Amino acid sequence: MATGADQAVGMSLVLFSLLLFSYYTVWVIVLPFVDGRHVLHRYFLPREYSVILPGVGAVLLLLCVGQRSCLLYLSVPDRLKLIWFWFCPISFTSALTMNSLSLFMQQQQVFKLPHVEIISE
Fold first, then answer.
1. What Å distances lie between residue 1 and 10, 13, 14, 35, 98, CA to CA?
2. Which of 20, 93, 108, 110 is most buried, judging by how many CB atoms fall within 10 Å of its CB?
3. pLDDT of 56-99, one tens digit each?
4. What is stated as this protein's family in its record (predicted)?
5. Nearest one of 109, 65, 118, 62 to 84, comparing CA atoms
6. Is the pLDDT at 113 greater than 50, yes or no?
7. Would the pLDDT of 102 be above 60?
8. Can you tell me the distance from the alpha carbon of 52 to that of 48, in angstroms, rounded to the nearest whole number?
């Protein structure tokens, strides 16, 4: 169960997202139909920024994800361990039951796995 501080942070993130979504919706959908001399236009940036700002945000997000991926890839000395955790389509517990994969991982010394025998049914 989340603590009170976690719930408060979560609720503030939800409220911030709702406020941002409402602001962007009014800016992009409602504002083009409002007269240009109306007082409402003072609270919004020009419409060109409605495309530029989300584009810049998406590029920054992709750069941060790419940087994190590269740093993680370079920080792991054994490349097999990284590939195992990121791209293996099976779960770690089901891999323990597969004797050949378990032995291979022990031989590569990626993980210290106990010897697992498969009982045929």
1. 13, 18, 18, 50, 35
2. 110
3. 999 999 999 989 888 877 776 665 555 555 555 554 445 444 54
4. Belongs to the DPM2 family.
5. 109
6. no
7. no
8. 7
Tokens of 66: 């790419």
Contacts of 105 (CB under 8 A, 6+ apart): 84, 95, 111, 113
The whole-angstrom separation of Cα 65 and Cα 16 is 22
Interhelix angle for 79-87 vs 49-75, to 10°? 130
Each residue's pLDDT tens digit, 1-37: 778 999 999 999 999 999 999 999 999 999 999 998 9
Question: Locate tokens 């009014």: which residue?
Answer: 26
Output the pTM of the full model: 0.54
Tokens of 89: 């389509």
